[in-house]
Amino acid sequence: MTSVLSQERNTPRSFQEIILRLQAYWAEKGCAVMQPYDMEVGAGTFHPATTLRSLGSKAWAAAYVQPSRRPTDGRYGENPNRLQHYYQYQVLIKPSPPELQELYLGSLEAIGINMDMHDIRFVEDDWESPTLGAWGLGWEVWCDGMEVSQFTYFQQVGGHDCQPVSGELTYGLERLAMYVLGVDHVMDMPYNDPDAPIALTYGDVFRQTEQEYSRWNFDVANTDNLLQHFLDAEAECKAILEQEAVDPKTGKRIIMAHPAYDQAIKASHLFNLLDARGVISVTERQAYIGRVRALSKACADAFVQTEAGGWAAE
Amino acid sequence: MPDLLIELFSEEIPARMQTRAAADLKKLVTDGLVEAGLTYASAGAFSTPRRLALSVEGLLAESPDTVEERKGPKVGAPEKALEGFLRGAGVSKDDLEIRDDKKGQVYYATIKKPGRPAAEIIAEVLEATIRKFPWPKSMRWGAGSLKWVRPLHSILCVLSDEAGATVVPLEVDGIAAGDETRGHRFMAPDAIKVTSFDDYVVKLKAAKVVLSAEERAEHIWADATNAAFAQGLEVVEDKGLLAEVAGLVEWPVVLMGDIAEDFLELPPEVLQTSMKEHQKFFSVRDPKSGGIVKFVTVANRETADNGATILAGNQKVLFARLSDAKFFWENDLRVAKSDISQWTKALENVTFHNKLGSQTARIERIAQLAREIAPVVGADADQAEQAARVAKADLSSEMVYEFPELQGLMGRYYAEAAGLPKAVAAACEAHYSPLGPSDTVPTEPVSVAVAMADKLDTLTGFWAIDEKPTGSKDPFALRRAALGVIRLVLENDVRINLAGANAFEPAFAAVNAAVAEASEQEVSEVNANLLSFFHDRLKTYLKDQGIRFDVIDACLAMPGNDDLSLLVKRATALSDFLKTDDGENLLQGFKRAANILAQAEEKDGVEYSYGADVKYAETDEERALFAALDAAEKDIAPAMEKEDFVAAMGAMASLRAPIDAFFEAVQVNADSQVVRRNRLNLLSRIRTLCLSVADLSKVES
């Protein structure tokens, strides 16, 4: 099937061009363009630039690409659009501006979607993350029946009411790009410009890793070790948060919300790995999710006691 | 008289909430206006994905003046009481009037309230409406604290009369009311000024917004059916989907597209569900083959290429979705054909309830119970057991994991693919039924056996662990399960003693073995408790069919009351009987006889139950009653034997005239003790005979 967009002007030519255009667009709209968080996460929401920064009273605007891992979605690179490692593009603006929908639509135009030719719809989709103790209301955005983004007004994160409210946009980059570029199989998608001297497809970059990780995720990962790592991360997170606020060495008030949150992220990813290995029963599942949520909440509690969480010395 | 137009313009409102929200807007605003004295001629409410609108016509320009008289404390009452009264009435002491009352002199206040202009009242009512609007889920946005379903952008509030239109001054959390709205998000996004409801509807239409959801739905349905008809096809009707889709668009444009050849072999329900759930497409059927061959999607705009790009995009998405569905279907078929029982085994890891064990354990219990029930419902026990074992297998299939609403149906397809007997495959689908009062009841014996076993296991299980429904809480849908059993029994005329050896007893034995808790004593208590739950559900069920509670109680008091078919047969006959003249009078006669007997028995300390002899009869009426009772007894006993309650009650009816005549002519408490006792024993024959049919003492006259 050829691209439904190929007749239109201004169409990007590669996966990376779509990312670059989004970066440029949101930079121009005033967001701090951040880099991916350097840990394994299940979604862009886990980046502290979203989870933690959506808490407290301070204004915030950030945009970034986040590599995301969902071990159970691995298909050895064979499924046309399922991957265990993929990219999300994430935008978080606090407080949510009144024209956020228009800003969002502008980003679709920026990547070559002509609003005069397509049918864009905001379809109810309430978002909830049991592991983050977070929920919000919003939509999934459809372009010609295809879900291209999630649009959420955060109401609660880590058990705290969001005040002010953050507006969050999440684009599933591969799916969106496949649509814009008219590609049917993710591995066939041009990664860089197809006319570049060394033209690379998504498959050139990621087919091998999808195979390797699928095998490891499903069959090889040592579950005893993973379980131990989970327990270690959980214990470390708690231990960090139990420390006195005032650092005995510097005498400064240093609450270690971020290091603790790293451990919560780790625990969450380890849980996902254990899940992919099929060693977590249905009943246990809820219990594990509850344990990760408890960590996320404790980190949120800690963050709102820090300066960026809006805490101010009396 | 002025007209009022209100529009609350927001980001996209979930489709499922729109209709209710429009109705709520109308109710809250008009109730508030009327309460403040502002009556109106008519009102109508509307919704689109981005707006709720209300038009109120023929509104009073101002509320009428009111005068209220209020009685205060007595003259000379404590100063505090008087102060309180003045404060409450909003008057000063000089305004009070003293009147003579029965108990002395009392203060009276006359409170005059001048009428208020409509705009003032509207502003108050609308603000209160917005602040307390009953959205099922609402949210905050930005830095504000106002709650709405999604961010609220503007309020339009215009009062118009012959003189022109004015904006009602009003502000809610920084959003000031005005006379502007916006058209279609993409096709006509500019601001539009409006002066009245008619003006609003016309200008919106010009700006590519159809205000009425009904009109949008009609338009969609008409265009869709026309497009299908033109190709000799028909759209599969789906009112819920139509309403939802009408709530997703302001300017509906119907597009019909093809389903790729590769997918036409999928079961039609799978195509339909996948297209509906994921894409909100209507299915288009070929009436000749019955297969789903095309789809209809509804876009929210017109385009220069007449929707070609939009349709191509939708088709592409559908292709990916159906590829998934096909993948699931083919994988599932492979498993089903090789060994469908592995799916049931896999359910070992699925907990049904932590006290009642896994799904697999539950299936084992249902299989055993289905065997017990099978002979009673005319099913083959082996087939019933086999069906129970496979009925929930599809819960492990990929298709049902993806589309839980296809459970049962997929079970049937997969059981057929596995080459299982037709009755077994049918039970996979039918055993969940009836799911509600309007769902059809299975009639195929194997399906009936498994459906009953499934529900009885659920009920006895939750009774055994004491998780009964309380008040409005029924998280495990146990009332529905009990009603399901009741309908299965009644509509198939199943004769089963629920509390006995084919139902509760083995079911409780099995769940108690699983829970390892209840003692002997408890089992019988729990059994009785569950039966009385069934009786309560049955009463509600029969009441809807016009049978009174007391009539059912009269039948519940009879032996064999856990045989619901028998119970209902009796109750129906009794209910019909009591609606006749004979029935009503016989009931009076029975009550009179029973009362006289009860008094005499209490006084004499004996029970009159035997020995009435016609030779002591003194009057013709007495002798006639003896004869009538002899005749009725002769008819009733065999009728009861055959459970022919209509005949038994017909025979009872023949007693009416002799009993009436007897009471008319005969004094029961005769001077002669022999005669008196004989008459009391005669009355006792009436009592015994009537009670053998139903406990008439429970029936209210």
Automatic annotation (TrEMBL), chain A:
<dbReference type="GO" id="GO:0005524">
    <property type="term" value="F:ATP binding"/>
</dbReference>
<comment type="similarity">
    <text>Belongs to the class-II aminoacyl-tRNA synthetase family.</text>
</comment>
<dbReference type="GO" id="GO:0006426">
    <property type="term" value="P:glycyl-tRNA aminoacylation"/>
</dbReference>
<dbReference type="GO" id="GO:0004820">
    <property type="term" value="F:glycine-tRNA ligase activity"/>
</dbReference>
<comment type="subunit">
    <text>Tetramer of two alpha and two beta subunits.</text>
</comment>
<dbReference type="InterPro" id="IPR045864">
    <property type="entry name" value="aa-tRNA-synth_II/BPL/LPL"/>
</dbReference>
<keyword id="KW-0547">Nucleotide-binding</keyword>
<dbReference type="Pfam" id="PF02091">
    <property type="entry name" value="tRNA-synt_2e"/>
</dbReference>
<protein>
    <recommendedName>
        <fullName>Glycine--tRNA ligase alpha subunit</fullName>
        <ecNumber>6.1.1.14</ecNumber>
    </recommendedName>
</protein>
<dbReference type="InterPro" id="IPR006194">
    <property type="entry name" value="Gly-tRNA-synth_heterodimer"/>
</dbReference>
<keyword id="KW-0067">ATP-binding</keyword>
<keyword id="KW-0648">Protein biosynthesis</keyword>
<dbReference type="GO" id="GO:0005829">
    <property type="term" value="C:cytosol"/>
</dbReference>
<keyword id="KW-0963">Cytoplasm</keyword>
<dbReference type="InterPro" id="IPR002310">
    <property type="entry name" value="Gly-tRNA_ligase_asu"/>
</dbReference>
<keyword id="KW-0030">Aminoacyl-tRNA synthetase</keyword>
<keyword id="KW-0436">Ligase</keyword>
Automatic annotation (TrEMBL), chain B:
<keyword id="KW-0436">Ligase</keyword>
<keyword id="KW-0030">Aminoacyl-tRNA synthetase</keyword>
<keyword id="KW-0963">Cytoplasm</keyword>
<dbReference type="Pfam" id="PF05746">
    <property type="entry name" value="DALR_1"/>
</dbReference>
<dbReference type="GO" id="GO:0006420">
    <property type="term" value="P:arginyl-tRNA aminoacylation"/>
</dbReference>
<keyword id="KW-0648">Protein biosynthesis</keyword>
<keyword id="KW-0067">ATP-binding</keyword>
<dbReference type="GO" id="GO:0005524">
    <property type="term" value="F:ATP binding"/>
</dbReference>
<dbReference type="InterPro" id="IPR006194">
    <property type="entry name" value="Gly-tRNA-synth_heterodimer"/>
</dbReference>
<protein>
    <recommendedName>
        <fullName>Glycine--tRNA ligase beta subunit</fullName>
        <ecNumber>6.1.1.14</ecNumber>
    </recommendedName>
</protein>
<dbReference type="Pfam" id="PF02092">
    <property type="entry name" value="tRNA_synt_2f"/>
</dbReference>
<dbReference type="GO" id="GO:0005829">
    <property type="term" value="C:cytosol"/>
</dbReference>
<dbReference type="GO" id="GO:0004820">
    <property type="term" value="F:glycine-tRNA ligase activity"/>
</dbReference>
<comment type="subunit">
    <text>Tetramer of two alpha and two beta subunits.</text>
</comment>
<dbReference type="GO" id="GO:0004814">
    <property type="term" value="F:arginine-tRNA ligase activity"/>
</dbReference>
<keyword id="KW-0547">Nucleotide-binding</keyword>
<dbReference type="InterPro" id="IPR015944">
    <property type="entry name" value="Gly-tRNA-synth_bsu"/>
</dbReference>
<comment type="similarity">
    <text>Belongs to the class-II aminoacyl-tRNA synthetase family.</text>
</comment>
<dbReference type="GO" id="GO:0006426">
    <property type="term" value="P:glycyl-tRNA aminoacylation"/>
</dbReference>
<dbReference type="InterPro" id="IPR008909">
    <property type="entry name" value="DALR_anticod-bd"/>
</dbReference>
<feature type="domain" description="DALR anticodon binding">
    <location>
        <begin position="589"/>
        <end position="688"/>
    </location>
</feature>
